[in-house]
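#struct-help
A.M.: can someone run this one for me? Single chain, 138 residues.
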Amino acid sequence: MSIIASRLNDSSLKDEPLEQDTPLPPFDSSDTDAMLGSFYLELASRAKSSLHNQAAISKKALEVACSETIQECEGKDVKQWAMMDFAMIRLKLYLKVELSEFDEKIYEEAKKNIRQSPSIDSDDDKGFNSGNFIYAKV
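D.P.: on it. Structure tokens below:
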């Protein structure tokens, strides 16, 4: 299990509703934490804007979707849109939201992009920057 996934799984957060405009607790300055915090906040923002039942969006649900996405993308240079699409569908599945035909197509396209993404060939263990997210070598 990756460092990110273990941090999410060890979280003491309960399945509580996500409070409006409540930022994540501060993270330390490592690349892993910066990437996790950025992705979590982006996913929370997208979920709030696109899901009808905002009360169902909990910290635990967001953590699970983030963890599953990070595990799926582990060691690969995955495009931001594919990670976010994958995470949104995983969030919907966690929340037991019925997927539309369009959702299923988005999910399949995201999984295809993740599978076809190149491996991270970085010699340092600090990761690299790509777009708005900092990807960590996990």
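A.M.: thanks! Helices lie at 3-9, 31-50, 59-73, 80-94, 101-116.
D.P.: also worth noting: The longest helix spans residues 31-50.
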